[in-house]
Design brief:
The chain has eleven helices and five strands; from the N terminus they run E-H-E-H-E-H-E-H-E-H-H-H-H-H-H-H. Mean pLDDT is 89; it is low at 213-225. The chain has helices at residues 11-24, 36-45, 65-73, 88-96, 109-120, 128-132, 138-147, 152-162, 167-174, 178-192, 197-205, and strands spanning 3-7, 29-33, 51-54, 79-83, 101-104. The chain folds into two domains: 3-132, Response regulator (Rossmann fold, 3-Layer(aba) Sandwich); 138-205, Orthogonal Bundle (Arc Repressor Mutant, subunit A), CATH 1.10.10.10. Strands 2-1-3-4-5 form a five-stranded parallel β-sheet, with helices on both faces. With 225 residues, it is an alpha/beta fold.
Length: 225
């Protein structure tokens, strides 16, 4: 009786995916998350899960950052990206960053079942066009390597920095003191090997699905809140 985790912020798609999985694996136990924060709690609560079906963009992360960070935290959990972004380059980058599969959201139930069965059997699965696409570039792999060292809380703080939040705003969102946020920021800068907040956001931005179009916010390196 396999345990599958579904992480997607759209309730209607989670419901559709739930139904599709139930048709393919009627005995599967399904658990859901609608944000990166709730996903971390879900993965911790179900450490023995057999598979995670992960949307690329959810509240708390953008692009491949959640995939990269989660693979570092839970290397034994197979992750299949399920996304409406079906460009071969996007699919290939997801595979390069540790996904064992990529299922387009336009896929029918039969294809979904084939993909899930292949992954649960220990194989990888993605449309043929994904394997023919160019791999992720070295700068992107370097950004992923640095991001893996962050703790879940540091990852959350980094995403909030990317959204332009000040220290006091981050402290309010997390329910911690500004001093704690400053300590997290210092640790983030050290682990990413950068000198200020703007550079940290630039590193994370390399893992965006469309890095060329995502211009990081201009953040004052000395902003304290």
């Amino acid at each position: 009786m396999p345990t599958l985790l579904i992480a997607d912020d759209h309730p209607l798609f989670r419901e559709a995916l739930r139904g599709a999985v139930a048709r393919v694996l009627p005995d599967a136990r399904l658990h859901e998350a609608d944000s990166v924060e709730s996903l971390h709690a879900l993965v911790e609560a179900h450490a023995d899960a057999d598979l995670l079906l992960l949307d690329l963009n959810m509240p708390g992360a953008q692009g491949f950052s959640a995939l990269v960070h989660l693979r570092a935290l839970q290397p034994g959990l197979p992750v299949v990206v399920v996304s409406a972004r079906e460009e071969p380059a996007v699919m290939r980058r997801a595979l390069d960053h540790g996904a064992v599969g990529f299922i387009p959201k336009s896929a029918d139930v039969a294809t979904l079942g084939q993909a899930i069965a292949a992954v649960l059997a220990g194989d990888r699965w993605a449309p043929e066009s994904a394997w023919a696409a160019a791999p992720a570039d070295p700068a992107e792999h370097d950004a992923a390597r640095r991001l893996r060292d962050l703790t879940p809380q540091q990852f959350r703080v980094l995403q909030m920095l990317g959204a332009g939040l000040l220290n006091k705003q981050i402290a309010f969102e997390l329910g911690v003191s500004e001093a704690t946020v400053k300590a997290h920021v210092t640790a983030i800068l050290r682990k990413l090997g950068v000198g200020n907040r703007t550079q940290a956001v630039l590193v994370a931005g390399r893992l965006a699905v469309d890095p060329e179009g995502d211009v990081p916010l201009a953040i004052d390196g000395n902003a304290g809140g």
